[in-house]
Amino acid sequence: MICLNDDLVIFDYKDYKNNFDIVEFDLNKSFNTGNYAIAIDFRNDLKYSIKCIKKLISLKKSNIDFCTDFKDYKVKYVISNYNDSILDALKAIEIEDLKEKYTFIYDSVFKQLNDIWSKKNYCNFCNNKCIATRMHKNIDQLDGCCYSFKMNNKLFSTKLIKDKCKCKFLGDDKRCTTQNISCKLFTCNYLKKTESFDIKLKDFLLIMAFFNSKQRLILKYNYFYSKEEIIDKLLEKSKIPLALYYYYDYYRI
Ligand code: SF4
Ligand code: SF4
């Protein structure tokens, strides 16, 4: 049994012995408020799982409440073929406060990203120079890509970036002092080509199920800012059409 929050629990299908009422989940089925738990087979399928979580989010938004009593518990779901991201998605649905919800999701995705990066020493620092820097011997830069810069939008300038300097979040111990999700999602061309190592937003269930296209741009392209600044940006509401939002860089903090 897994706790969803202080009130609700989830059962693993293996532990379900017909001891309370369940309704089988179906993407095309409509659900009403009632005393039942929803049984969902997530099929170990990312795309299908994202659709399921989106449907559960819309039920919550429509105030459709369901759960059933079993012993001292209130059971909301009976699930199979799930993973940690799905459990965190089900927990996030129950968080009412939007900032708290986004912080929970951000932390969960950041942990996943840390796990991905810790599988291998991709950047392979040696004397403070990363592998990409060492392989391009004309560049003599320490501390990898932890340099902040601004995009140069001056007409007729040949320089794409300006104001390049060491990122203010880089600590004396060479560790990042914030949790910037855009930096964690970034892989340089060297790693893409030589290691075939790339990280894509579409592989993250929580990002695809909870955030819209504008929020995904915010998550992807706000290097050199703090976790708190990125979460505040995610909370902004924008009615600007996506194409203009993208074109005018409104997704940048
Ligand atoms: S991502 Fe690439 S450029 Fe950045 S530190 Fe790692 S190897 Fe260096
Ligand atoms: S915010 Fe990004 S660029 Fe700055 S220190 Fe952290 S990882 Fe490096």
The gross shape turns out to be: elongated
* Total number of distinct structural domains: 2
Main beta sheet strand tally, sense and closure? 6 strands, mixed
Strand percent estimate? 5-15%
**Alpha-beta classification:** alpha/beta
Query: Helix-strand pattern, N to C?
Result: EEEEHEEHHHEEHHHHHH
> What ligands can be seen in this structure?
iron/sulfur cluster
The separation of the N and C termini measures 41 Å
Got a strand count?
8
Helix content: 25-40%
Q: Give the low-confidence spans.
A: none
How many whole angstroms does the radius of gyration measure? 22 Å
* Distinct helical segment count: 10
Integer average pLDDT: 94
Question: How are the secondary structure elements laid out?
Answer:
Blueprint: E1 2-3, E2 8-12, E3 22-24, E4 37-41, H1 46-61, E5 68-70, E6 73-80, H2 84-93, H3 98-118, H4 131-135, E7 147-151, E8 161-166, H5 181-185, H6 189-194, H7 205-210, H8 213-220, H9 227-235, H10 242-247
Parallel strand pairs: 2-6, 3-4, 4-6
Antiparallel strand pairs: 1-2, 5-6, 7-8
Helix pairs in contact: 1-2, 2-3, 3-9
Bound molecules: iron/sulfur cluster (SF4) (2 copies).
